[in-house]
Amino acid sequence: MEQKLSKDELILSHSFPTSKATWQKMAEDCIALANHNGGIIQLFIPENTYHKRYFKTFSKNITQFTQGLKYVYLKPNQSTSVNQLKLKVYPSSASLISSLPTINNNLSKHTVISQMEKPNTPTIQIQELQQADIPTDLIQLKYGIQHSPYPILMLDKNNKITMANKAFQRLVTANNDDLLNQPITSFLTNKQTKSSFKQIWQYVNTGQVWQGTIDFQGAPRDSIPVELAVTPILNSQNKPESYLLQLKDLRESIATQQQLKQLAFYDPVTNLANRALLKDRLSMALASQRRQNTYGALLFIDLDHFKQINDVHGHSQGDAVLKECAIRLSSILREDDTLARIGGDEFVAILLGFGSSSQSAKIQATSTAEKLLGSMNEPLIVNGYQHYIGASIGVTIFPKGLETAEDLLREADTAMYGAKSAGRNSVLLFESSMFQAVRQRYQIEHELREAIENNQFEIYLQPQVDIDEQIVASEALLRWQHPTNGLILPAKFIPIAEDTGQIVAIGNWVLVKVCEVIADCQQQGKGISIAANVSAHQFREPDFVSTVKHILKTTQASPSLLTLELTESLLLEDTTATAKIMSELAALGINFSIDDFGTGYSNLGYLKKLPLKELKIDQSFIRDICIDPNDAAVVETMLSLAKHLNLQVVAEGVENKEQAEFLNKLARIKMQGYLFSKPQPVTDFLALWLNKPLTSERHFE
């Protein structure tokens, strides 16, 4: 019998196999045909127990190799023989025929295929199907499901997988063979999820679509949160015959939400809480302590000299230092406490559970703050660099009344600035009187800008004398001639100028004035060496060297008569970079002095690495030199060290003859203090220096 083949579809009729072996053989034929182009097979099976039993074997074999299997049970009167099995395969072409292992490869597409070489061998008949009857929508649907970016499953009525598209295979890291006939519950993560799934099925079996989120089990046994939609496919009696599951992997969206939350509530550098989260937790802590009638505390921690690290090493090193500081601070606090970074070099800690006594709460909070300060005083070694930071910490306890979170932050901030103004590296408990100091500070900060613009600063000079009390040099000291408040000393405004960065402009102004005085004295034939203090902020400016060169050039001052005084802490911060700057300036003839020597850190290795000319012994060692053996021993050690390193020495704060005589017995050094002269305005100093030489009988008034 010869039939004309369609290029799109084949119908095959098999005589119904009567043994497992013939079932297996027919399965191989169908598999080869269906897998050629990923075809779909539809079976028409006589409905009786005998055939159904053998069909299970066929179904098991064929679904190992195909993406899906559709079958229909036919009653004997439904246009087919009781012993006939019909299969419909889509799509097909002439090349499909040659893929069948039981068919001669040379047969044409118009040949009737019949295999009767052995008894009980199935007969395959190719029958014509009209083009109009081809279910192309089925082909398109299958293609769409397989290539959908969303995982899709088909389950039978027993909740076993009959189809899993490629996206689902990728989701659970399993291939198609491993998924088919697997119960869907094997991909659920735990008992709670399985219990939830049971409730979902009870709902779906009422014929309704369920939507929600659930966890699936991936590989290697990781939990995958998914958005799930379960659609029941109903038969003519409105009972579910199978189920369509559509999933959406939520891991990426959850990760995005977590990232947004991290950005919104956590500091990106230290991973500590940020200002927004801190204020939320502080408000809750305030309410909680009020309910429980107990006290908590808020600590405002500001790192000292942190800006220098950014200026010298860059912000990446600064960030690394901040991370290390966060680790140190966190190690001191309890698990229930909150540590936040609210910007720059500022940290805030919320401490809870200090009991019902306000006095006890103050003691405990201050004790914790002292521990935090101690941790910051230890050297920080980050990326091979050693940093000395320190901190100023303000403390306030709560609740005190009806204060808000903003009020507490302002109080702790005020106490912190009080600690910083008192000399930094200290802890201060908030008192209401501090608000007056804050207002004064704000006013000074505002008026400092006007002082620079309106030339309200003045240079005072204090002489340095030799063993014969003859002037050999001087130190320039800054004064602020306020239009309404009169003369303001540096201790009141220099810390504020350093905090606001105005110290750079002020320091450059001082250098200009000092060099002008040096040049004036030179022109009158009586040059004098003048020392000027240089702040760490000013020294770390990228253009500091070029600025100094420009000032020397424009004023025509001799570099050898200019001494720059640097603090010991500045010299210890990045010795390599410091040495480079100092060497460039020393090459011009400029001298360098260590100010307040002995008050900084004890590492003296820098003394032989830097181009220093002198060191200044701080007045704290001079004050009790005649009555305190320890101070005397320290000064003797410093003088011995200076002698061995060939450094000159200036003793600051010499106020009586006993101190001067004691120092003169130890070494020939320069001395500076009220015994010889108070700081004088430049005009007064020059009048004496240029016209009336100082003698041992005449001192500055």
Q: What's the quick description here?
A:
With 701 residues, the protein is α/β, with parallel strands linked by helices.
Record keyword descriptors for this entry.
single chain, 701 residues, 4 domains, Alpha-Beta Plaits, ten-stranded mixed β-sheet, Beta-Lactamase, alpha/beta
The CATH superfamily of the largest domain is: EAL domain
Structural class: alpha/beta
CATH architecture identity of the largest domain: Alpha-Beta Barrel
Please work out how many helical segments DSSP would assign: 24
Radius of gyration: 45 Å
Q: Uncertain regions: pLDDT < 50 for 5+ in a row?
A: 1-15, 35-42, 44-50, 61-134, 694-701
Q: Quick one: overall form?
A: elongated
Strand content: 15-25%
Number of domains: 4
CATH class of the largest domain: Alpha Beta
CATH topology (fold) name of the largest domain: TIM Barrel
**Arithmetic mean pLDDT:** 79
Kindly, what is the distance between the CA atoms of the first and last residues, rounded to a whole number of angstroms?
A: 137 Å
Note the main sheet.
Answer: 10 strands, mixed
How many beta-strand segments? 27
Q: In which range does the helix fraction lie?
A: 40-55%
SSE layout:
Elements: E1 10-15, H1 20-35, E2 40-46, H2 49-62, E3 69-74, E4 84-90, H3 94-99, E5 125-127, H4 136-146, E6 152-156, E7 161-164, H5 166-172, H6 176-179, H7 191-204, E8 210-217, E9 223-234, E10 240-249, H8 251-265, H9 275-292, E11 296-303, H10 306-313, H11 315-332, E12 338-343, E13 346-351, H12 358-377, E14 380-382, E15 385-387, E16 391-398, H13 405-421, E17 427-429, H14 434-453, E18 457-465, E19 471-482, E20 486-488, H15 490-500, H16 503-523, E21 529-533, H17 536-539, H18 544-555, E22 562-567, H19 568-572, H20 575-586, E23 591-597, E24 614-617, H21 619-622, H22 629-644, E25 648-652, H23 657-666, E26 670-672, E27 680-681, H24 682-691
